[in-house]
Design brief:
Oligomer: heterodimer
Distance between the termini of chain B: 45 Å
Shape of chain A: elongated
Structural class of chain B: alpha+beta
Shape of chain B: globular
CATH architecture of one domain in chain A: Beta Barrel
Structural class of chain A: alpha+beta
Largest sheet of chain B: 6 strands, antiparallel
Number of strands of chain A: 7
CATH superfamily of one domain in chain A: Nucleic acid-binding proteins
Largest interface: A-B, 54 and 72 residues
Order of helices and strands of chain A: HEHEEEEEE
Distance between the termini of chain A: 87 Å
Number of helices of chain B: 19
Largest sheet of chain A: 5 strands, mixed, barrel
Radius of gyration of chain B: 27 Å
Strand content of chain A: 25-35%
Chain lengths: 143, 670
């Protein structure tokens, strides 16, 4: 069994290195999923962690300003003002009424500073199962 | 017509169950006719699903908007190709497509093995039909694609449909899902053979020999699918990336990683009779990851940018996966004795050991990707808080893993079996090693400071040289013996042992892709609101907007900027990035302007109009070396195709195998 010792040692080194990389990576990049209501209840902790907040983009709230985009996320009647300052272009799916994920930190000014935005078009890629019956456009009149 | 379609898919479900029962009972009771009728039933499953699919496709193309699926995924103004592609553009249709592919594969398996593996085939059919039945349950009872739109109890139609998601209206995207599905579904076949050989305690490695080609073809489809997906992301999404560690992308990578591990470790079993348990585990894991990948996009388990909607599918997939895992684990444990290894590891510097580490690393990366993808679910279960990991985490972990694999790509194939002498080490690695060190030194002197980029370029050169030396040495020997020129000799060499040299070509493709990946360390970008006449300087390019236009056609509205590109005062071209807004689905897409060159791509995206509507937001990027990813992908595909060509010289392995060969062509069991 002795010759397996070398293998065991090498394998242990490889796996150890990976586990070390993975676990240090977790603490650096982890992001907490929170609802808008939860962000409100977090108190001071909200300013310390990276957060990911989901909601619908409130209609008419998107404003482009110099180098940043302001909008409001809404979910279950809770609202959150978001400012996006990232350098990547906003996704094409990002517009009024879209489901969006804002990734970033809560600012002391009560505005959420997002560094990344993901958006999923609410009407498309797939309607929610509940919406299936609400078929698009009115039916043809068979008169 | 809708009734015919729904009925035929329902009948397919019954036929699949019949095929499953007839095959297995026929085998247990040793009734050859029952077995044959089970195999016939497999063909009928294919015919029935084909009828259903044909009707769905026909309705998509003709625009029969009484079908809810057609209304959601097709419209009148879409080009024909995308009307056809709408078959797999939505939840219900794509699952029907899955079923259809599986039934096609099953029919091919039954046909090609109609005189072979008689004792094993009933179980192969059984396993395939088990999977088929599961998907037909989904097709019939959970996400039926033949639902009609109804209003107050009577079937009705809409004027026009929503149309296929415009992001998917792109040629590479139209064929990306079928490629990926061909890969996903294909692993059902090696899995079925593995399970069947476990159940019947097949002596020898019949299942591996039979499925080697299947596995390779399947792997080829998967690789192509992943590459197409990356190319699509690069050209359509407008952020210039090709990989973002999104759960859906990871879902396609997972079975690819374990499948790659499987392709390597079967060589250990073929040549040394080792790793038998491991191979069964790997092929099962790969198949289950394929099912998992299919479910990940559909069940809303992990939120993703391009997932299908959350639906009722989750519990079905979870139960199926749980059953499959339980069954496989039980079978393996029950038959461990039969899977005993025939030889042992001898030295750390040996081919065996390099295979071992190749597998270890591939599996570790597979596990890491799985872990990262499911982290929100795991953390929620453990701590109650949903925590996600982003691309930075994956990169931190996967870059070192990738580099280690790259190194193994070079050294592994040159280690000898059992143990390697220091003389052969020196002969094989001296010059590539020195060249790589020189290259890294030169790059350092040229001002490259990125640690990973230096390592990666060094490894790339090292591996490329070892591969080229292998070709050169072999070809030179043949050229001298048969007085051919070197080119002809290289062809001859490759033809004599296609597996080996095709494999080298695949490795070469991987090297080229790594060169492309490494280019990302030197990306440059800038964003500017630009009116007509404005100039943006990026790297050594000057970009001048000369025109901003808008217009519309029946499918979409568009804005387009015309940008003159010059370098050092010389005009080198015009790029026209465009933003489209599709009317039917009310969604925008980007048509980027790319100037691809071997050394770097200039990439312009039309970000949108400024608020006053006078200026365009132009995002400009320079991506060094990115073309090499696509070139590497093509080399990889070419190499895999070479592997599929039968070798001119039949390789005789030193390993003796008495049992198995004779029983391979055994008659129908008595």
């Amino acid at each position: 069994m002795k010759k397996y010792g070398k293998f065991a040692a090498l394998i242990a080194v490889v796996i150890g290195a990976l586990v070390w990389l993975a676990s240090t990576g977790v603490s650096e990049t982890k992001t907490y999923y929170k609802t808008i209501a939860e962000v409100g209840q977090m108190g001071d902790k909200a300013f310390e962690q990276r957060l990911r907040v989901a909601g619908d983009v409130a209609s008419g709230s998107i404003q482009h300003a110099k180098g940043e985009v302001l909008f409001t996320l809404a979910q279950d009647k809770q609202e959150l003002k978001v400012v996006y300052t990232g350098s990547d272009p906003l996704p094409d799916t990002f517009r009024d009424g879209a489901q969006a994920l804002a990734d970033g930190r809560m600012g002391r000014d009560g505005v959420f500073h997002a560094s990344k935005i993901q958006a999923k078009c609410a009407s498309k890629y797939e309607a929610k199962p509940g919406n299936l019956r609400a078929a698009p456009a009115p039916p043809i009149n068979k008169s | 017509m809708e009734n015919v379609a729904a009925l035929s898919v329902l009948l397919a479900f019954c036929a699949a169950i019949y095929a499953l029962l007839a095959s297995v009972i026929g085998r247990l009771k040793r009734k050859p006719f029952l077995i044959v009728s089970g195999e016939r039933a497999v063909y009928s499953v294919w015919v029935l699903i084909s009828i259903g699919s044909a009707i769905l496709v026909y309705s998509l193309i003709t625009g029969d908007f009484r079908f809810s699926y057609v209304a959601q995924h097709s419209n009148r103004s879409m080009p024909l190709l995308y009307k056809f592609a709408a078959w797999w553009g939505g939840q219900e249709g794509s699952l029907l497509f899955w079923s259809w592919l599986l039934s096609t594969y099953s029919a091919v398996v039954v046909f090609t093995n109609r005189r072979k593996h008689r004792d094993m085939m009933p179980y192969v059919v059984g396993v395939l039909m088990c999977v088929q039945t599961f998907f037909l349950i989904l097709n019939n009872f959970v996400v039926n694609p033949f639902k009609m739109l109804s209003l107050e109890g009577s079937i009705t139609a809409v004027q026009d449909g929503n149309g296929l998601n415009p992001l998917l209206q792109y040629p590479a995207m139209a064929i990306h899902p079928p490629m990926l599905y061909l890969g996903y579904v294909g692993f059902a076949v090696p899995f079925a053979f593995a399970i069947a050989s476990l159940i019947t305690r097949q002596p020898g490695d019949a299942w591996i020999h039979t499925t080697r080609r299947w596995t390779l073809i399947t792997w080829l489809f998967q690789s192509t699918g992943i590459m197409l997906g990356a190319a699509w992301a690069y050209h359509v999404l407008g952020w210039g990336g090709y990989w973002g560690w999104d759960p859906v992308e990871n879902a396609s990578l997972l079975p690819w990683l374990s499948g790659t591990a499987f392709l390597h470790s079967v060589m250990m079993q073929e040549k040394k009779g080792m790793m038998k348990v491991w191979n069964i585990v790997l092929v099962s894991a790969t198949f289950l990851l394929c099912i998992f990948g299919t479910s990940l996009t559909r069940t809303g388990l992990v939120s993703s940018v391009h997932a299908f909607a959350q639906g009722p599918l989750g519990k079905y997939f979870v139960s199926f996966l749980a059953l499959a895992i339980a069954g496989t684990v039980y079978l393996i444990l029950d038959r461990l004795e039969y899977l005993r290894s025939e030889s042992q590891l001898e030295s750390v510097i040996s081919r065996e050991s390099s295979f071992l580490f190749n597998n270890l690393i591939l599996l570790a990366s597979c596990f890491a990707v799985l872990w990262g993808t499911l982290f929100p679910v795991i953390s929620e279960a453990v701590s109650g808080e949903k925590i996600s990991l982003d691309a930075a985490w994956f990169n931190k972990l996967m870059i070192p893993i990738g580099l280690f694999l790259l190194l193994l790509t070079g050294v592994g194939p040159l280690f000898a079996w059992r143990r390697t002498s220091s003389e052969s080490l020196r002969r094989n690695f001296q010059w590539p090693g020195i060249a790589a060190v020189v290259l890294v030194g030169a790059l350092l002197a040229a001002g490259v400071r990125s640690f990973y980029a230096l390592i990666s370029f060094g490894f790339c050169l090292f591996v490329a040289l070892t591969v080229l030396m292998e070709f050169y040495r072999g070809a030179r020997a043949i050229a001298a013996k048969n007085s051919m020129n070197l080119l002809r000799a290289t062809y001859e060499l490759t033809h004599r042992n296609t597996r080996r040299y095709g494999g080298y070509l695949v490795h070469m493709g991987i090297v080229l892709m790594f060169i492309g990946f490494t280019g990302a360390a030197f990306n440059k970008s800038d964003v500017k609101e630009m009116g007509v006449g404005d100039v943006l300087d990026l790297s050594h390019y000057q970009l001048k907007v000369v025109d901003i236009k808008e217009g519309e056609n029946e499918n979409y509205q568009w804005h387009r900027a015309t940008v003159l590109v010059s370098r050092g005062g010389d005009m080198i071209g015009t790029l026209e990035p465009e933003k489209r807004f599709y009317k039917a689905s009310r969604q925008g897409t980007s048509e980027v302007g790319v100037r691809p060159r071997l050394n770097e791509d200039l990439y312009l995206n039309f970000g949108g109009m400024s608020d006053d509507g006078a200026r365009a937001v132009i995002q400009a990027y320079v991506f060094p070396l990115v073309s090499w990813i696509w070139i590497g992908g093509l080399v990889l595909i070419g190499g895999t195709l070479v592997c599929l060509v039968p070798s001119k010289v039949k390789m005789q392995y030193a390993r003796t195998e008495v049992v198995g060969i004779t029983r391979k062509y055994a008659e129908v069991p008595k």
